[in-house]
Amino acid sequence: MPDVLVWLMKAGAIFGILLGTAAYLTLAERKVSAWIQYRYGPNRVGPWGLFQPFADLIKFIFKEEVAPAGANPLMFRLAPFLSAIPAMLTVAVIPFGPEVRIGEVATNLSIVDLDVGALYLLAFSGLAVYGPILGGWASNSKYSLLGGLRASAQMVSYELTLILCLLAVVTLSGTLDLREIVTSQAERGVWNVFVQPVAFVLFVVATFAETNRHPFDFAECEPELVGGFHTEYSAMRFALFFLGEYCAMIVMAGLTTTLFLGGFGIPFVEDPHWVLGFLAFMTKTAMFLFLFLWVRWTLPRFRFDQLMGLGWKVFLPVALVNLFLTGAVVSLLG
Amino acid sequence: MTKITINGREVDADPAQPLIRACHDHGADVPMYCYHPGLSPVGSCRICQVEVQQGDMPPRVVVACRTPVVEGMVVDTEAERAHETRRECLEFLLKNHPLDCPICDKAGECDLQDYAFAEGQGKGRSAEPRRKLEKRKSLGDVIVLDQERCILCSRCTRFMEEVPRTPQLTVSDLGSRSVIETFMDRPLTGNYQGNLADICPVGALTLKEFRFQARVWNLRKTPSTCAECSRGCAITVETLRGGEVKRFRPRPDLEVNQYWMCDTGRFALDRANLPARLPAATLRGQSGLEEADVEDAVDVLADMVGAHRASAVVLVSPFATQEEAAAVQRLAAELGAAPAFVSPPPNDLKDDVLHTGDPCPNRRGLTGLGFEALTAEDALARLADAELAVLAGERVVELVGAEGLAAVRASLRLVVLDAVPVDVPALDVALGVPTHVEKSGTWVNVDGVRRRLSLAVPPPVGVAPLEQTVERMLARLQAAEVRG
Amino acid sequence: MVVVERKELTLAERLYLPEIFRGMAITFRKLFAKRVTRQYPEEPLPTTEVTRGQPRLVVNDDGNIACVSCGLCEAACPAYAITIDGHETDRTIEREPERFDIDMLRCILCGFCEEACPKDAIFMSDELELADYTRQALVYNIERLKRPKSALQARIDYVYRLNDRWQSSSSTS
After folding, report:
1. Mean pLDDT (chain A, rounded)
2. Residue B440: alpha-carbon gap to chain centroid
């Protein structure tokens, strides 16, 4: 079978998984929030409300698109795509599983295995900030503008912590290739979360800020900004913002799994079957996704100055010290 | 004038009238069932008892409707003893009165109900059942009698004796078996039976026409004038839910109709509730008569009138008010025509009570303004010679005769302002006007008494008062003259 | 001026993390708590005879409507929701409604009509559901308002009990 065909099949499967998960993540969010609040959540469309995402999709498609007067026509239409596409692109380097062998075909279960996978991922997740900024600015609305400003400030600030924590892991593994980071953890026999607990905590918190999730969702912030950067959006464009947000969540959860929880590895199992590896990866990712939802319905929103203070005055120094110590230890033991 | 004291206030009373009138005239509220200001007093119901003190005598309770006014008498209508005796009378009156106010048409304007509500005990003490009598006894075409409700005040028998002077009703049998009856159960006759329902203090005598038609508190009452004959009786027009006229009732007016009205006028509801109305404006177009904008119609009208003013006939209906007639008169003067009104011949309803037999309610007013009375034949004869005819006012087409108008040559420029739709070949422009319950104005009755008409029902949308429409035409005509 | 001495925060409190975990433990437990949502169309609202639902007209056991169209409910209605026209019948009760419309969009379920009725002909039922596609369909005519007396019996008994209590308390005063 030609490599291109294999590659296309992989890409199709992974994108299918990504979009399907994103769709059902919206349902999961509503269900989890309902359960925490003694409610049932959506349960009218299909059994246990399982077809709710499709109903929502149909609704989004058929709703009317409304653009405010004075909105920048190009940017207003472009911003949702700028939000959704980078989030979807980052998934390309996430290693979903070990090498797959079906008959004579053998391939790694990720769209590409880049030598600089971590760098690629950071570069594209950095691009995602343009969606909220441009959407907020182009809407010609004070709420949207404030939401966009907050989103940019917050994402840029926490990206630093995110990168520094990632660098600590990279230093430890000696590679930027995400698949090799996974295998290095397996070889070492201990997950990075136990070697780098500080980096793990900082990284997880930073992903919350990076994906604009509670308790750091200042870019949307319904009570203050009535929806923030997507206040003025409706129908499919609004759905694209949501898709971007949920894709980013999935990618970040997958990244955390890869970096700190041994990716597709299973403890005490040497070279597991690829199906098991894939399932292990998905389970770990799902755990993190549940954490996103769980935290959202537990913690109240911070204040914006607290968020920035936390990012610059606590996380950044701690991450720097952590990286320095890691580097020192690695070079000494070297 | 006699000086008496009523409830501590010294007042002048008319010695020719019973004491109850003096009380009523000076703000003392004395209930009454058998007494009616238009009838002779009998003092049978005993509900109007008041405490009177005269000279050195101790105060005593007397029946106000049968007590003459005497100089220096001191009357206390609110004395505890008076109330006490009235309450006792009331209890006896209610002893056999059925509790069917929810069904009774009188409820809401019933004297017995009002006073029982104000003074009654709310509970009967009698252990015996009420007497059972006929509840739906027809007394002719107009009145239905409920014998159970009757409190035997005899207002109805006295009315038949004293007003139309055709005694037909009587109280027959004795004691608790007494009932109101006609002789040998013959139906009532005469043109004044409707008043029986008005004067009955309870719901014993009710109108067949109004039976279960509406609850009286839902009726909006507008004082106006009857359009039936040139007597112009004072009436109230009572409408239900702002539209349908449900009944005409007489209003006391001592100069005109005292307290009464005839049945012909009372039941002339068809003329108030017209099934079909002429819209605000219709014009003769290619495909017959078409509805048009009023402004356009007035323009067309003015052009037409201006072009054919040489020999014009201006005719109003005898229902036109003085205000309408004055406007039409100005139009006639502008056209150089002699104003006239259609005068139908007298009918055979004339009697010596109220009905004059003349169906033109404003004959006196119109002739006073200089309008000439024309019979329908004379009117049609004039139309035959004219180039232009303006027929204005409610029912003018009917009175001139629709057949006669249809026979008029088609080249005549015919302008009609009427309330009901009209279609004759000669017709060019038709404008809607309000009916007599839809307009305000003045009529002068047969004795020269001026009385008001009031708007009781809003006219159809767009239909303006006749005088306004005519003034508009006039203004438009004069403007054309200035230009020309 | 009052100077409030704030408690010095411990390291754990300043770290904030223990409290976060405590909060998350609480929300996690609630995930499995009993649901309180009422699944409305399947689980109807519980009603008692005290429930003041939409007014309904009593049809007596002989099949005749109890209403005599006296118009007192129409007069008592503060929302002008009721319109009645009567006509004559051959029964001993001489009148019955020919038209009895209640505009359910105007009705405020106050129960004044029930209180005003001298003939025990209108009672507040336990029917509360009100949905349709046009306004006209929500003006209920006499046929939609009629209910057999048995269907309203609980409410009728309740109103009688209530009136008895009223009367006994007013007689003592």
Report:
1. 85
2. 15
